[in-house]
Amino acid sequence: MIEIREENRIYYQFKAFKEIDYINHLFTSRIGWEHSDQAALSNIFKTSRKKIIALKQVHGTNILHIDREEDDYDEIRRTEADGLITNLPKIVLTTYHADCVPLFFLDRLNKAIGMAHAGWRGTFENMAGKMVENMKAIYNSDARDILVGIGPAIGKCCYEVGRDVKDNFFERYVEFPDIIENRNGSFYLDLWKVNLLQLKKAGIPEENIILSNTCTSCKVDKFYSYRREKGSTGRMIAAISLTE
User: Fold this and answer.
1) Per residue, what are the HEC states of the chain?
2) Residue 29, class by beta-carbon neighbours within 10 Å (0-12 exposed, 13-18 middle, 19+ buried)?
3) Does residue 236 contact residue 96 with C-beta atoms inside 8 Å?
4) Contact call for residues 209 and 196 (beta carbons, < 8 A)
5) Is 220 exposed, middle or buried (0-12, 13-18, 19+ CB in 10 A)?
6) What does each C-alpha distance from 244 to 47, 156, 173, 204 come to in angstroms?
7) pLDDT reported for residue 184
8) Domains of the chain by start residue, with CATH
């Protein structure tokens, strides 16, 4: 990902997304950002704060479709969900993260976007695949036209899980190789790889999937890590918007 320094803030963008002129997107850092920094987002995305949409995230797979312009989106902001999709311009879809996987979606043919939050529970329940299914159903998207970015999240290097989580993933994803590493009797889950394999299974070509390969736990100087910081209340913002 490309690191961007703006005033006192640092945020990140995928090179492949940045090269597309009708979208804007970012993943914030812990440097120069306040939690839910609506003013900065409004400035970067050049839109009203009222059009910045967040959710009540619950580590599930509920996905909301934003299909109409509204004066305010307060009802949506109170809705329990972990995914958003739209084809409306100037609406900023956001999710909040501190180790969980941010998933950015762009249907380049139909100009539709999506933003999702996938922790281990959302990943286990195939949030990535369900986002693709929703885009196919609502926008008639072809998976081959969808570009997906897997943003900074806790990596296999750091993400130790219990035997119950390990067993559940092995049982459900028996066809997925090397998603858990056994290191001296401790188990480490590769959330990046599970999401990548889910996306491939949903029909996304591997060349359309961009991995940030950035571990939030390893790079706690730049990112918040719930696991590393033992319950940090800080969060990064993942956001995407159609500019036209």
Assistant:
1) CEEEEECCEEEEECHHHHCCCCEEEEEECCCCCCCCCHHHHHHHHCCCHHHEECCECCCCCCEEEECCCCCCCHHHHCCECCEEEECCECCEEEEEECCCEEEEEEECCCCEEEEEEECHHHHHCCHHHHHHHHHHHHHCCCHHHEEEEECCECCCCCCEECHHHHHHHHHHCCCCCCCEEEECCEEEECHHHHHHHHHHHCCCCHHHEEECCCECCCCCCCCCCCCCCCCCCCCEEEEEEECC
2) buried
3) yes
4) yes
5) middle
6) 12, 38, 39, 25
7) 94
8) 2-242 (3.60.140.10)
Average pLDDT across each block of 10 residues of the chain; the chain has 244 residues. List them in order: 94 98 97 86 94 96 93 87 97 97 98 98 98 98 98 98 97 97 97 98 98 97 94 90 94
Q: Residue 7: what pLDDT?
A: 84
What residue type is 93 in one-letter code?
A: L
Determine whether 79 is exposed, middle or buried from the number of CB atoms within 10 Å of its CB (0-12, 13-18, 19+): middle
- Is the distance from CB of 13 to CB of 222 less than 8 angstroms? no
* Per-residue model confidence (pLDDT) at position 244: 83
Instruction: Report pTM.
Output: 0.97
